[in-house]
Amino acid sequence: MKTIYIVLAALIIVSCQNQSNQDMKKAKQASIDSMKVEIEKQKVMDSMKTEMANIKEQQKVESQKVVVVHQQANGTATTTTTTKKKGWSATAKGAVIGAGVGAATGAIVSKKKGEGAIIGGLAGAALGTGTGAVIDSKNKKE
């Protein structure tokens, strides 16, 4: 009788382990499938973001175009489209140049090289920004 109980207990344990392995495999597969679906969704979202960025860039380029109409003496008009150049503003250039010159001067003049460079860089950046802003305002008036 004991042997029958032992055999039944062994069968139950083996069948439960087999069932749990199958359940684990199903759970793993479901997890893998859901990850694949999420990856596909992410790819679609990324492609949409890329397309939106491209559209915004095209709109930005279109908004930077300047249309010039020339009226000629015989009554005809010609149109010319030009794009504005991209680059640093005079304010940004002035700040960078001022910071560099100020940092170098501060490091050379000061006894404490690090502090002198920092203070000189900040002062130079402030003065360069101000000078660049003046140049920008003159350029806008022209």
Question: Which key phrases capture this entry?
Answer:
142 residues; mainly alpha; 10% strand
The N- to C-terminal Cα distance equals: 109 Å
Radius of gyration from the alpha-carbon trace, in angstroms: 36 Å
Helix content class: over 70%
Number of E-type strands: 2
Beta-strand proportion = 5-15%
Offer a quick outline of the entry.
This protein is mostly helical and 142 residues long. It contains 3 helices and 2 strands, in the order αββαα. Strand 1 and strand 2 (77-83) form a beta hairpin.
Note down, in words, how this protein is organized.
The protein is mainly alpha-helical and 142 residues long. Helix content is 78%, strand content 10%. It has helices at 2-63, 90-109, 113-141, and strands at 65-71, 77-83. The longest helix has 62 residues, at 2-63. It is elongated and about 115 Å long.
